[in-house]
Amino acid sequence: MANFGAESTTDDVLRGIDLTGKRILVTGVSAGLGVETARALMAHGASVVGAARDLDKARRATDDALKGAPKRGSLELVAVDLARLASIRACTDALLAQRKPFDVIIANAGVMACPQGKTSDGFETQFGTNHLGHFVFVNRLVPLLKSGSRIVSLSSAGHRFADVDLDDPSFEHTAYHPFVSYGRSKTANILFAVGLDRRLSKRGIRATAVHPGGIQTELGRHLTPELIAQLMPAGRPGIKFKTVPQGAATQVWSAVVAAADHVGGKYCEDCHVAELTNDPTARQGVRGYALDPARADALWAKSEQMVGEQFGYA
User: Is the pTM of this model over 0.90?
Assistant: First the structure.
């Protein structure tokens, strides 16, 4: 396996890879990592289905990204609002009706450190969008995944801020903090991948979670100077930001380059499987609670209860 790292780009990891005939679904293709992921996959022949809440914005962003860029594959855009279960169900019903299989689903969309709020269904915004939205979206599309398919869940090193709180997922009894909420949702993204992988690996379908690294994209639109100071306390080295192509590399690598058994059920960063660490000062590695199978099952059950839909895999 090639030796990729933090500075590797999407073009680096996909060099020599032919994705002709592959159909790949990417959420969040209206900005940042989602647009770059779609561009890179298409350049290598993939048929990409890009999901976004604002289709006009997604069209502008993808048109700009594709100007003068190699385009061997194709792009189809579909509308979905991951903060609205009705929108998620309408989008997935339409995709299921087409009966066209997917080789990869990349759950890329998300929100970060936003003010306290609720989705249209009454869930806390970050947990409801980042986790519950993708929980329903991905699970409903599993019938379209064939053996050999993969699911990539975008998490973050921010999972170290907090484990999930299954007793109070919507901060009804807990003081709200933007990064605690974000941490809970990013831990949930990892646990969801763990739960998916355990349920689907016997069908030849693998799931993994990834941390893209620190990237300056629209995801950080809610970061105030005060929040940034909390993220990077005085006396500690600052975050070395990646470019967008470097940030999107790990999800692309996990989706179509790395060996399935190598990344299945794991958390990846900088184009490699992360090491387990419970060091509270560590900026790399994955916390043990995020890979706990029992915790993943408990989150799965709680998520089904919250969305009112069950996803059992015999």
Answer: yes
